Amino acid sequence: MIRSIASVGAGGVYLGVIFGGGYAESPSIGNAMAGGIIKLSSANGVLWNQYFGSDAVSEREVTADAAGDAFVIYTAEAASPSPATTTNVVKIDGSGAIQWSTTLDGPAAGLPDYHLAVTPSGEAVITGSFTGSLDVDPGPANLTLTAVGTDTF
Question: Would 26 disulfide with which of 19, 85, 105, 151, CB 3.0-4.6 Å?
């Protein structure tokens, strides 16, 4: 299923996708979901694809910057050692190589209400809602936000 689409100008489009366990071409494990991104050429040919995670993964949104790089935000649900959901952001260059990835940390990081945009200079901007606390610093430092009920960032 196509979840989101981002234009790459004359270079085609990115499709954010989710596959269930019932598709023969699906990279999913058993009946779990797998999420990813597909780059199509302007002639609708598949140029490359990337899939994320090994448990239940759900692509949330894809966007592209002026250079043609893709940014994807997705959630991943791990079944072990204990059930936990994380929200992840990944940057992929126009040829399909992963440039970097980061995980939003905290007990509320798996909430599905996140959105992604890219500034003209190529920086990812994330907004969403959360409960509990959430580390919003993508580096080794912590910038922890604490919600009162459900808050936005």
Answer: 19
pLDDT of 127-151, one tens digit each?
877 777 777 776 777 788 888 877 7
How many C-alpha atoms does 39 have within 13 Å on its Cβ side? Answer: 23
Query: How many CB atoms lie under 10 A from the CB of residue 118?
Result: 19
Among positive and negative, which fits the CA dihedral 104, 108, 113, 119? negative
Q: Using CA atoms in the order 131, 86, 135, 61, what is the torsion angle rounded to 10 degrees?
A: -90
- Secondary structure (3-state) at 150: strand
Token code pair at residue 100: 């970097």
16's tokens: 């954010």
**Each residue's pLDDT tens digit, 103-121:** 775 555 555 567 888 998 8
Two structure tokens written together for 120: 């003209």
Q: Give 73's DSSP letter.
A: E
Contact indicator for 55, 33 with CB cutoff of 8 Å = no
Query: How many C-beta atoms lie closer than 10 Å to residue 52's C-beta?
Result: 20
pLDDT digits (tens, 9 = 90+) for 5-49: 888 877 789 888 876 654 444 444 444 566 788 899 988 789 988
